[in-house]
Amino acid sequence: MGRLDNKVVVITGASTGIGRATMERIASEGGTVVGCSRTKSSLEEALDSSLALGGRGNIFAADLREDGSAVALIADTVKRYGRVDALVNNAGVGWQYGIDNPGSMAALHETSPEWWNDVMSINLYPYYSCSREAIKQMITQGSGSLVHVASMAGVTGLYDGHTYTAAKGAIVNLSRSLGITYIKQGIRSNVVCPGFVDTPMVEAVTPLFADPAGAGVLAPIARPAAPSEIAAANAFFASDDSSYCNGSMLVVDGGCTARSFAG
Q: What residues have CB less than 8 Å from 155, skipping those under 6 apart?
């Protein structure tokens, strides 16, 4: 018996990185996984690796910035499995997006309205739309768990990437607000704030950990997290092991936000 047996869990941004690792972790614990992202081929690879570990599931390819995509995702899940026990909101972009799209991760005075709206539409809108539809189903069920992946940049400032930090900070407080509002209907809401994670999203930064002198400056633990380490936190909040966690924020950053200055 796994702790996620009989749980139906929707994971967004599921094709790579934290999302894929979360699919794999939840499937390995017996859960039914529904992975969503824009790229069907990558989703199929993620599903194959997940189902090889146990559980069952399927994929749903969609751009969650588009109106109606979240409605279709949750409706398809309910049609197939009859319920949604947990939603892991994970879709988003980060540092690499700024390299590929100059200006998108700039300081505020250098950020155009177009880039502000673009990053907000990717990093925040799906958390609204997917949570909204999942909550409707969870109210009908009388139970559910919302798990939101934000960032340590949602609780600390950055010298640039101001649109990114605004979106992540909004996710943190949205999660708290949902928790205190919907617990009356049996729905919990919690947020995970990762630090540096060895994923394509921050692949321009993670090689810096190879320098022992610089590694400790980036993070006290002197290494990036593996995606599986963030997935473990997501699986905890999706499971009944976190039954008394509501409105909680779990920072998984190797000690970055615990310090007042770099050592």
A: 169, 172, 193, 249, 251, 257
| Euclidean distance between CA atoms 74 and 87, whole angstroms | 10
213 in a structural domain: no
Residue numbers of the domain that contains 41:
8-199+226-254
Say how many domains are in the chain. 1
Candidates 114, 119, 68; CA nearest to 92 is 119
Q: Answer whether residue 259 is part of any domain.
A: no
pLDDT score of 1: 65
**Angstrom distance (rounded) from CA 79 to CA 66:** 21
Per the confidence metrics, is the pTM higher than 0.70?
Answer: yes
Q: Which residues are catalytic?
A: 164
- Helix (DSSP H) and strand (DSSP E) numbers for the chain: 9, 7
Given a cut of 70, whether residue 230 has pLDDT beyond it is yes
Which token pair is 196? 């540096």
Judge whether residue 155 has pLDDT over 90.
Answer: yes
Query: What's the CATH code of the domain at 82?
Result: 3.40.50.720
